[in-house]
Amino acid sequence: MDNPLLRLYRSKIYTAVMMLVFLLCIGVLGYRFISGYQWLDAIYMTVITVTTVGFAEVIPLDPQSKIFTIFLILTSVVIVGYAISIITDYILSRNNFEDIKQRKMQKKIDAMSNHIIICGYGRNGKQAAKKLLAYDKPFVIIERDKEIIEKFQENNIPFVFGNANEDEVLFEAGIEKASTLISALPSDADNLFVVLSARQINSKLTIISRASEETSYNKLKLAGANNVILPDRIGGDHMASLVVIPDLIEFIDNLGVVGERNINIEEIKVEQLYNINEVKTIRDLDLRRKTGCTVIGFKDDKGDYIVNPEAETKLIAGSKIIVLGRPEQIMKLNSQYNIE
After folding, report:
1. Residues 28/42, Cβ–Cβ less than 8 Å
2. pTM of the entire structure?
3. Is the Cβ–Cβ distance between 79 and 23 less than 8 Å?
4. Is 260 left (phi over 0), alpha (psi -120 to 50) or beta?
């Protein structure tokens, strides 16, 4: 929403404009019926009188017209002066407010750590932000289109205005403290440059990049991207799968529904589930009975995945489990183990 101070100034501007219009109407009608001027001459006399430019009268003024002109000049000085002061204050206040808002946003970004940086707020960037919001993950968006920032910034989404290709902009987004960078720019060349820059600044950063052409895949991986996503290929595979195995794909789509209270899959560090000094197994946790969630995947401390792990799989330090459940079951799991 707009700042209340700016709304107040806007209402004052509307009032000043209405007063100016009313003054012009009075002037035109006065010269038309008091001085007997034609309509065009009446408009001309009103404009030169209100603006005080000092041109000569169209026709010499009689005493009544002179009194009316004195009234019009004095009134116009007050109204025009008021309008100019209000418009000037509005411009200065708007600039100051934008500066204050930007400094406040930058202070919020500076306080972040282990956050995600999204480069580009196009179609892919918006989808990524929507998913991160659903999982309550902190993120910052870098966008060089000022109109897009002004349109979406009111949703309390932290934006950094600038080109993600520039190191200064990446630093403003807190890249040295970030955990992940998503480069969702429309150009593969821009994504490649961002990946190179980000990898040099933060060697521990997890980088996910978008690519339009399959020939860019290896280049982005070589530049330092951990994962490269080809949206067009994924979309084609998805559409074909809807023909070959429609029910299975529809089920998987339902698992990925994004929105408040609609999270069906969760990845959890084992350290969040129990004291790892005494190693437990999936059977020992018994999450199915306690929360209703089912363990469908396991990732060991080396990063290797096991789909549908055995009940006797040991949950060692540094490993993670992937659980499946209805939204209320996921919420129960998070609540029972104080997972944020």
Report:
1. yes
2. 0.61
3. yes
4. beta
